Each structure stands twice: as structure tokens, then as C-alpha cells.
Recover the amino acids of this structure.
């Protein structure tokens, strides 16, 4: 009988112990890895060694992201032990004076204040009736609004946490020792998706004096607004558009962000499915509400070409338009091939900012453009602005309807244009003229031969002498 009672008492004690919540913080981390995707999405893999009991365990996994997607959380054993997850709760309702007051509606609190004349501290109990847009308290003989002193609470509700926490109930097996309760350290990893972690690539290019090469540097800018820090994390970045099913994230409050610039470190690149994965060669720390930059690449003497480009429109050829604007300015483009040397690796999308030194050797900003994800061997093309010393006038010199269309519209139309390009520079220039054409067109006459780059585009390379001008003329017959 005594043995039976003793066994029952031990089982009851073990049950109470199993139901006691154990807290795991970042101090128990053994490894941390963060993979950041384009579009406010990251994968966190948080490995820890946690002491657990045999049977059911309640564990508060602290220091998780405040913008965790709890439905993506996965807890697994790393040491081969059996682990069965029974329940999990994401507690993101954080402890604040207002939250504590709201959770105490209907409960008694102690109101402490000083007597105005004597200064003696007095207290009395009141019931919190409401905590919306102010406080309503019911005392024994009255109801008051506002807080007439300090409020003392009997405790903190279990649903309020001082930081985001994933609380879990799981079952595991721990071998029974010769004496004492069965417990052991368990190697576990929590994996989850979260918002609040973003990255983008930024590039800086310095154009040579002869404008035939650039020195190119690439930086990765990391921003953490997830509500927690990631110390000594293995950081990886995924470039590419990962399909997602309309995730809904609560926007994090805008706060002042610190800027940290990391030392230049090698970044390894590899293919991952239809994306590209970049891995930093050393561990790094991402503090909460911090923006950090790490070096991505550096390439010297990358050959570039500069192009002046004037682009028309296909609606020019369907009617009468006369002059099409005075002093048209060609766009200034710069392009280089993503190949050879330190290049020849997939470039994540980002903004390329271009500088050039003036006669005194000071770098001046001359333009920027955004590039998309660029594979190895592809051409990077940047529009830096519009030419200042090269201008053009374009006008329609002839229009006639060769064959009528239905209802006096359409039919076969023949139209002629003249484009005068002037160059005020002291060096000759070549201007690329691009004319989008209607679907059914034929070049009837032209002063320079065109190149048909596709079914609806004619392109001319127009040489313009220094401080001179060149006139380009052409006649097109189009069917509408």
C-alpha cells in the first residue's frame, strides 16, 4: 500500500514538473542561420541545447522574430531523439503599462498615492472597469476616471511576455536514470519564416577619364526590423523571385535605424533551384532596427561603351504631325558585359550609381539606373541621363494616303521625316536613332542605310561631326 501511494506521489510530482514552463533564451543557441529573400521574407534556423524532461514539456522559446509567421514554425530534434510537437502558441502581445492595464479589466488593483497635506502614502483597492481611451476605476464608495496615483498589480498575466516568444508543448523520451527525475539536454532546431528582414544590392561605378572603362563595387544592404537581433548568424541571400501565396504581415513601426558597415568579406555564390544563393564567408550580427552593409564584389577596369540614343514612336506613321518638338535630347547610355575578371557572376538586382572625376580629381555623380537580376554573360545597360551638347529637330516633311481605307481611315499611308542632329562637342559623336514602326511597313527611301533589328524596328547609326550637324531623312509606306 505504501509503495502504491509513493508511486502515485512520484507520478503526480512528475506531472507537475512536466507542466512547468521552461524558458529558453538566445544564450542557449549553438548555431543560428538566416536566409534572406527578396520581398521582405527570411528563413530563420535557430539551434539550441535545452534541458527537457521525459514525457510532456512546456517550453518558452524566447528571442524569436516579432514578425514570425507562426504557421511556418517547425521544431525538430537534431540528436536523433524522438520529439512530438503537440501545441504551440506565438505570444507577441508584449508587456507594457497599457497592456497590463487592459489585461486587468475586471480585476482588483491597489491604488497608491500620497496624502496632499501630510505626504503620507495611502492605498486602497479598486476594480478596473475600462482601459480604453483612459482608465475607469470602481472604488468601494465611488467611480473615478484617470489614474489618481500609482497602480500596483498582483502579477503579470501569463499571456503577456516581455519579448516575442513561441511557447510549445511537446513530448519526448529521456532514458530514466538510476535515481532522480529523467531529464537531459536536448539538441533542437526551430525553423520559421518571418518578415522584417530585407536586403538589396547597390553598386558604385567610377568611370575612367577616357570613358572606356569603370571600376565597379557591389554592396549588399541588410535591414532588420523584425523585433529581435540575430547574433553571430550564418547569413545567406537568395536572389530571384520566389512565388508566395499572398502573405500578410503587420507593418513594423518605423524607428530610427543604426547604420553599420561591415568589413569587406568574400561572398560565395551558387545556383539554388532557379535562383542564386550568396553566402557570407563569416558569421555576422544583425541587431534589431539596424541597417548593415557588406561587400559583394569588386571589379577593376571593366570595359564599357557609351551610346547616344534617340527613340521615336510608331504613331508617327499613321497621320499628319508636322514638327515633333524642338531640341530633342538623346539619352546617354552606358553598357558593359557581365563576364571576365571579378565579374562573370550573377548580379542581384539593384541600383548602379556612376561617378566620374573632374579635372581636379574630385568624383562627381553623373547618373544612376536600376538593373534587374543579371545572369553571367548578359549585358548590363544603364541610362545615365540626357545629352547636353547633342540636340536634334524632327519634323514630318510629307504625308499622303496612297490607298484609302474603310470609312476614310487607315489604308496605305506614305510619310517622310527629317531628323537634324547637331553636335556642339569638340569631338565627333555617333547617335543611334531607333524608330518603332507599324506592324506592316516598308522603307521606301532613306539617306543612310537602316538596320532592321526586329519586325517593327528600324535603327540608324548616324555619325555627327564635331561642332557640326547631320541630317537623316527617310520615307516609310505603312498599311493600317
Amino acid at each position: 500500500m505504501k509503495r502504491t501511494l509513493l508511486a502515485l506521489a512520484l507520478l503526480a510530482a512528475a506531472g507537475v514538473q512536466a507542466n512547468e514552463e521552461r524558458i529558453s533564451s538566445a544564450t542557449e543557441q549553438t548555431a543560428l542561420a538566416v536566409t534572406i529573400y527578396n520581398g521582405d521574407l527570411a528563413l530563420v534556423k535557430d539551434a539550441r541545447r535545452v534541458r527537457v524532461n521525459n514525457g510532456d514539456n512546456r517550453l518558452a522559446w524566447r528571442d524569436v522574430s516579432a514578425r514570425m509567421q507562426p504557421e511556418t514554425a517547425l521544431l525538430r530534434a537534431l540528436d536523433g531523439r524522438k520529439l512530438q510537437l503537440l501545441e504551440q502558441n506565438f505570444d507577441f502581445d508584449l508587456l507594457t503599462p497599457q497592456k497590463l492595464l487592459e489585461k486587468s479589466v475586471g480585476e482588483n488593483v491597489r491604488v497608491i498615492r500620497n496624502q496632499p497635506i501630510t505626504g503620507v502614502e495611502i492605498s486602497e483597492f479598486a476594480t478596473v472597469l475600462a482601459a480604453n481611451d483612459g482608465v475607469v476605476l470602481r472604488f468601494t464608495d465611488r467611480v473615478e476616471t484617470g489614474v489618481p496615483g500609482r497602480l500596483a498589480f498582483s502579477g503579470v498575466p501569463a499571456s503577456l511576455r516581455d519579448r516575442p516568444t513561441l511557447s510549445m508543448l511537446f513530448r519526448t523520451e529521456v532514458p530514466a536514470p538510476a535515481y532522480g527525475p529523467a531529464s537531459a539536454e536536448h539538441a533542437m532546431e526551430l525553423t520559421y519564416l518571418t518578415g522584417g528582414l530585407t536586403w538589396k544590392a547597390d553598386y558604385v561605378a567610377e568611370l575612367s577619364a577616357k570613358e572606356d572603362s569603370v571600376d565597379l563595387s557591389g554592396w549588399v544592404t541588410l535591414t532588420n526590423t523584425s523585433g529581435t537581433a540575430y547574433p553571430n548568424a550564418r547569413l545567406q541571400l537568395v536572389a530571384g523571385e520566389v512565388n508566395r501565396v499572398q502573405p500578410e504581415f503587420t507593418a513594423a513601426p518605423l524607428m530610427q535605424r543604426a547604420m553599420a558597415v561591415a568589413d569587406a568579406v568574400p561572398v560565395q555564390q551558387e545556383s539554388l533551384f532557379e535562383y542564386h544563393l550568396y553566402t557570407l564567408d563569416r558569421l555576422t550580427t544583425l541587431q534589431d532596427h539596424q541597417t548593415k552593409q557588406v561587400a559583394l564584389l569588386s571589379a577593376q577596369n571593366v570595359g564599357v561603351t557609351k551610346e547616344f540614343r534617340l527613340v521615336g514612336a510608331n504613331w508617327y506613321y499613321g497621320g499628319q504631325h508636322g514638327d515633333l518638338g524642338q531640341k530633342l535630347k538623346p539619352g546617354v547610355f552606358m553598357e558593359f558585359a557581365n563576364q571576365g575578371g571579378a565579374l562573370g557572376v550573377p548580379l542581384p538586382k539593384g541600383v548602379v550609381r556612376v561617378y566620374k572625376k573632374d579635372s581636379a580629381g574630385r568624383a562627381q555623380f553623373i547618373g544612376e539606373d536600376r538593373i534587374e537580376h543579371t545572369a553571367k554573360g548578359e549585358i548590363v545597360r544603364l541610362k545615365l541621363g540626357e545629352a547636353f551638347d547633342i540636340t536634334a529637330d524632327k519634323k514630318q516633311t510629307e504625308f499622303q494616303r496612297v490607298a484609302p481605307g474603310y470609312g476614310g481611315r487607315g489604308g496605305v499611308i506614305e510619310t517622310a521625316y527629317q531628323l537634324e542632329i547637331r553636335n556642339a562637342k569638340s569631338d565627333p559623336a555617333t547617335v543611334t536613332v531607333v524608330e518603332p514602326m507599324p506592324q506592316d511597313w516598308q522603307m521606301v527611301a532613306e539617306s543612310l542605310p537602316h538596320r532592321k533589328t526586329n519586325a517593327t524596328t528600324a535603327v540608324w547609326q548616324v555619325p555627327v561631326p564635331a561642332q557640326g550637324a547631320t541630317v537623316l531623312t527617310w520615307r516609310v509606306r505603312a498599311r493600317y
